[in-house]
Amino acid sequence: MNDGLKILLVDDDKVMLFLHDTFLKRSGIACDTVLCYNGREALDYLDTNQALETTFLVLLDINMPVMNGWEFLGAIRDKPYLPKVLIVMVSSATEESEKARAFAFGQVIDYQQKPLTVDTCRRIIGSDKLRGFFDNVVLK
Q1: CA–CA dist 122, 27 (Å, integer)
Q2: Which residue pairs, CB below 8 angstroms and at least 24 apart, start in 47-54?
Q3: CA-CA distance, 87 to 83, in Å (whole number)?
Q4: Domain for residue 44, yes or no?
Q5: What is the spatial distance between Cα 59 and Cα 108, in angstroms, rounded to a whole number?
Q6: Which residues of the chain, if any, have pLDDT below 50?
Q7: pLDDT reported for residue 3
Q8: How many domains does the chain have?
Q9: How far apart are CA 16 and CA 114, in angstroms?
Q10: H or E element in which residue 60 lies
């Protein structure tokens, strides 16, 4: 179990949440995973748990009701815990303009197509920004 990292899966599609959670576990990630059905739930979770000595990896969908991914990115911009938040956008959008818009936010470290797979989860945990959190993960 990795106490230094908590993963938030943010998507309004319950099937996607289940799939992504399953693929994260199959890729060797043994972190606590929090499921959020929109950006507001994720924001409330971060606001409530910001005192933890934890880095938060947020796998964030774009199109959701209540608060979408763009609104979430705007809402955390001035939060004191912003340096502890790393975001991977997970979207069905394939337009380069969407990717460029996502990477304009400093906390966005990656942009992946839906649905995630075991291979894309392994690429995410292998990123330089997450180095150290998954050193004990054996990629099969």
Answers
A1: 6
A2: 47/79, 49/6, 50/79, 50/80, 50/81, 50/84, 52/6, 53/4, 54/3, 54/4, 54/5, 54/6, 54/84
A3: 11
A4: yes
A5: 10
A6: 1-2, 138-140
A7: 56
A8: 1
A9: 8
A10: strand 55-60
Residue with tokens 């797979």: 117
Facing residues of 60 across strands? 10, 89
pTM of the model: 0.90
pLDDT at 135: 62
- Give a yes or no: residue 140 inside a domain: no
**11: containing domain:** 5-130
- How many Cα atoms sit within 13 Å of 13 on the Cβ side? 13
**In-domain check, residue 70:** yes
CA distance 111 to 120: 10
State how far the alpha carbon of 73 is from the alpha carbons of 23, 68, 122, in Å.
24, 9, 24
> Is the four-CA dihedral 96, 102, 106, 110 of positive or negative sign?
negative
Give the domain CATH number at 120. 3.40.50.2300
Amino acid found at 73: L
State pLDDT tens for residues 74-88.
999 999 999 999 999
Residue 90: beta bridge partners?
112
In a domain, 137, yes or no: no
